[in-house]
Amino acid sequence: MVGAVTSGSIADFIGRKGAMRMSSAFCITGWLSIYFAKDALALDVGRLATGYGMGVFSYVVPVFIAEIAPKNLRGALTTLNQLMISCGVSTSFLIGQLLPWRNLALFSLVPSAIMLVGLLFIPESPRWLAKIGKQKEFEAALQQLRGKEADTSSEATEIQDSMESLQQLPQAKLRDLFQIRYLRSVTIGVGLMVCQQFGGINGVVFYLRQTFVSAGFPPDLGTTICAILPIFVTALGVSLIDRAGRRALLLVSATGLVLGCLLDGAAFFMKDHELLLDAVPALTVTGILVYIGSFSIGMGAVPWVVMSEIFPINVKGVAGSLATLVSWFGTWVASYTYNYLMSWSTYGTFMIYALINGLAIIFIARVVPETKGRTLEEIQATINNHEEDQEHRK
Known about the structure:
The chain is mainly alpha-helical. Helices cover 82% and strands 0% of the residues. The protein has helices at 2-35, 40-68, 74-96, 101-107, 109-118, 126-131, 135-146, 153-167, 180-198, 201-206, 208-215, 219-244, 246-272, 280-299, 302-310, 313-344, 346-367, 376-393. The two termini are 37 Å apart.
């Protein structure tokens, strides 16, 4: 959450690449602290450093991808970030069964080291360069991204025109996000993060083993399946997001989350009331797989895609930080309360999550716009014009 609060300002001040370099350095420092730890303090420092680095990464990576990608590939490339996260989680699950935790911490240095080296060979975000007035660097970065033979004049003009209009506006502070012109984009970005996290995903995932044990299903088998499943489902989402669209994936995902919660709620209701006990393990694992698979195809990645698209660049830092903070706060709430809720009522817990995900369906259907196939400037102009029309009518 600390990383989320500072992520937007850092990315605006030292650039997207600079923010990623800094995050990599924090992660490397954290893993080294964990590896060499002699007491709890060093472990805490290591966890704080890696957590801070990931808080910044979680904002700046989707924003950077969205700002460099062509509009017809932006959704797939931004969703690819979530696919890599799924691969990383699955890898750590599997390798963690083979390596002691110190060696696992050392192994975790590798991605951050690759990031530091890789950043030497990629251009900075053209939109950030245009924002800070580096015209030559902006043109060179855009040409490098689109290819030497590509005609970038039209795209460059559109970005420049957008930057010039935004430069007339003051750099936004937190209180400015509640102005009419920004309220819709902030509602969409923050609302999607609430839907993503308060539907219970991190509580369910963090305590998978306990859930499988409670249901009488082999926990090792269950957690292994659940570690691998998101890779394939997220890959499917990558292939669909720029064809089916953001809204469609979000609605399908939220509907699947409701179904998964209802199946698990029914399974634990049957267990508590000693009904069809032989069916409880199979029903539980089916519900969990539906739940995790549904999250992976839409709700896991698409809120970050939409968040990276909808904020004008003059408010992207503070608005993105707010949305990222809400996401990590929701992660903490879901993981912290899960055990207490399960102690209160196992089936009641999943019924609460079903209700929250049902409300998410309504929110997506009524509030979230479709953004596929449009440039960032077109998306933001549409949202801003909508708010200006509302203000004019008032």
